[in-house]
Design a protein that fits this description.
17% of the residues lie in helices and 19% in strands. It is α/β, with parallel strands linked by helices. The protein folds into 2 domains: 115 residues, NAD(P)-binding Rossmann-like Domain (Rossmann fold, 3-Layer(aba) Sandwich); 58 residues, Formyltetrahydrofolate synthetase, domain 3, CATH 3.10.410. Strand 7 and strand 8 form a beta hairpin. It is elongated, with a radius of gyration of 23 Å. It starts with 19 loop residues before the first strand and ends with a strand.
């Protein structure tokens, strides 16, 4: 008798919830951005995290409450409830009123704008022992084609009159910089089997070869 392997469908175990992230609606004048797209929320929820978003927070970025709800976020009209989350993601710095709504030892990831804040602002953060990670002062390392100043490898060299499309952002916490991913740029493991650097060399006269 021949034994053949049989397919079996197994339930994928969900990870234990680790982070509870609150995303409030931006209130600064002409601020239309939001920290997380529905796709980013879906990825966080899949990996066991909770995301609570204030109703209408994504409208200025063309994302509906339904988009976030279907991605797994908890949508609420209660602003205080959002700011009560252990971790807050914002684009603009939280105001003193928003800091007052936060719980002690909250982690805030936002543009803090250190040079523009007054002493009372930092005293409010310190009073609640809030950890504020300001991303606005970090260096930027763009991931894009090396063939052009633009994100289009067909526009060689130094084209003019172009726009770059930022697909997403990554935060390299250890290295301490922000990485905008431009256009269709692939990051690892999307590298060729033989890196282009292996074909690069420099002679005794300083002439570089192998660049393309």
């Amino acid at each position: 008798m021949q034994l053949l392997p049989q397919e079996e469908k197994l339930e994928i175990a969900r990870h234990k919830s680790e982070l509870f992230i609150g995303i409030p609606k931006e209130t600064s004048y002409q601020e239309r951005r939001i920290c997380l797209t529905p796709d980013a929320v879906s990825s966080l929820v899949f990996h066991g995290h909770r995301v609570m978003i204030e109703a209408g927070a994504g409208e200025s970025s063309s994302y509906s409450d339904k988009d976030y709800s279907e991605a797994g976020a908890e949508v609420t009209n209660d602003t205080n409830k959002v700011f009560g989350c252990p971790m807050i993601l914002k684009v603009e710095p939280p105001t003193l009123i928003e800091i007052d709504m936060m719980n002690p030892q909250t982690i805030v990831i936002s543009a803090i704008q250190l040079k523009t804040q007054k002493k009372a602002y930092f005293e409010a953060l310190a009073l609640k022992r809030i950890t504020a990670l300001g991303l606005d002062g970090l260096p930027v390392c763009m991931a894009k084609t090396q063939k052009s100043f633009s994100d289009n490898d067909k526009l060689l060299g130094r084209p003019t009159g172009f726009r770059v499309s930022v697909r997403e952002f990554e935060f390299a916490a250890g290295a301490g910089f922000v990485i905008p991913i431009l256009g269709n740029m692939m990051r690892m493991p999307g590298l060729p089997a033989t890196p282009a650097s292996e074909n690069m060399s420099i002679d005794n006269n300083g002439k570089i070869s192998g660049l393309s």
